[in-house]
Design goal:
It catalyses: 3 propionate 3-nitronate + 3 O2 + H2O = 3 3-oxopropanoate + 2 nitrate + nitrite + H2O2 + 3 H(+). This is Nitronate monooxygenase. The protein is built from 14 helices and eleven strands. By secondary structure, the protein is an alpha/beta fold. Strands 1-9-8-6-5-4-3-2 form an eight-stranded parallel sheet. Helix 7 links the parallel strand 5 and strand 6. The longest helix has 19 residues. The structure holds flavin mononucleotide. The site of flavin mononucleotide has 26 residues, from strand 9.
């Protein structure tokens, strides 16, 4: 069966699947394998300096001639760091000790130079430029368009999708509340933006004229069939790809995903200061239980504060102190290669659609 439409044809896809950009968790091998399987592979570049972007995307180009997507967070205003860091440092101190690290230091806003990141993405040879967390500055959208790149923005509400369409994107990702990782909300309070994929997709399809890509909680062909039925032109899947052989996450993270219950994920600010969905673990619970003022710092300070802990936990295989981003479809996660997963999901999509057709 063929699942082609204007979006898949424009992107040269033989299957309506986008392997979600997952900064720090995807890999050049996964992006290339997704492309070779007929899907769109995506490289999350937000946690990379420009030269790392150049290196990663050159690895993708060496491994495949297929088009691919590069992704960046839209720039966010950086708030002032709270002046009293006592409670925040106290929260992570015991974990530093348990992991054999020196006591935590005051976090800096840090980050990479946005302009040079953008330049590296524009030079990457990717066919698609996607972004999340807001609207990219108009000059960035114009520069990507000048390169002939297809532009995709992420929205968690109908209003955000309309704003992205007005900004000139070619397609919108509808990020449902089931999604793993950070919430992409940028207009209004994130709690009011927690709309499930099944409600979000058709309302977004009705509100914008560009193609809508369904994302959140889709982890097998049944979910893909549902999303296509709701009017989505494609799906963007994150969590289901995390347990794939090519994923760039620690083995202990992969092991935790397999068989995890969807009731064991929730939205937390514990690791980065921004709301994100992940599997509940010791650090998440301790951070959320702490009720002293400024225990959780705003993004990007909380992210910088917990980075040494997360890095050491990854090296030492300690899942209890890692950010285990995962969506509510986590229980469907399988150990496979990227190619096997895409093939399996397409066979399941066909079977699911056949079950409901007369
Ligand atoms: C580990 C992880 C990292 C993510 N990083 C990014 C990112 O860098 N950029 C982005 O646009 N979306 C990112 N997302 C969100 C995905 O694009 C997508 O919306 C989400 O994975 C869909 O939900 P699912 O995980 O249930 O499939 C990330 C998701 C996960 C699970």
């Amino acid at each position: 069966m063929k699942y082609t439409n204007a979006l898949t044809e424009r992107l040269g896809l033989t299957v309506p699947i986008i392997q979600a950009p997952m900064a720090g968790s995807d890999s050049p091998g996964m992006v290339a394998a997704a492309g070779e399987a007929g899907a769109l592979g995506s490289m999350g570049c937000s946690y990379m300096a420009a030269d790392q972007v150049r290196d990663a995307t050159s690895q993708v180009r060496t491994a495949t001639n297929r088009g691919f997507n590069v992704n960046l967070f839209a720039p966010l205003p950086i708030p002032d760091r709270p002046s009293d860091l006592h409670n925040a440092l106290n929260l992570v101190a015991p974990y530093h000790e348990a992991l054999g690290l020196a006591p935590p230091e005051a976090p800096q806003s840090g980050g990479f130079d946005f302009d040079s990141q953008v330049e590296a993405l524009l030079d990457s040879g990717a066919s698609v430029f996607s972004f999340a967390f807001g609207v990219m500055p108009p000059e960035v959208i114009a520069a990507a368009r000048d390169r002939g790149m297809f532009i995709i923005g992420m929205a968690t509400t109908v209003e955000e999708a309309v704003a992205l369409e007005q900004a000139g994107v070619d397609a919108v990702v509808a990020q449902g509340s089931e999604s793993g990782g950070h919430r992409g909300s940028f207009l209004g309070d994130f709690t009011a933006s927690m709309v499930g994929t099944i409600a979000l997709v058709p309302q977004m399809v009705d509100a914008v004229s560009v193609p809508v890509i369904a994302s959140g909680g889709i982890a097998d062909g049944r979910g893909i069939a549902a999303a296509l039925t709701l009017g989505a032109s494609a799906v963007q899947i994150g969590t289901a790809f995390l347990a794939c052989e090519e994923a760039g996450i620690p083995q202990v993270y992969k092991d935790t995903l397999i068989g995890a219950s969807p009731s064991r994920t929730r939205i937390t600010r514990a690791f980065s200061g921004r709301p994100a969905r992940g599997i509940i673990n010791d650090f998440m619970e301790a951070a959320e239980a702490a009720n002293a003022p400024d225990t959780l710092l705003p993004f990007p300070y909380q992210n910088a504060l917990t980075r040494p802990m997360r890095k050491a936990a990854a090296q030492q295989g300690k899942a209890e102190y890692l950010s285990l981003w995962a969506g509510q479809g986590v229980g469907l996660t399988r150990r496979m290669t990227t190619q096997e997963l895409i093939d399996a999901m397409m066979a399941e999509t066909e079977a699911a659609l056949a079950r409901v057709s007369v």
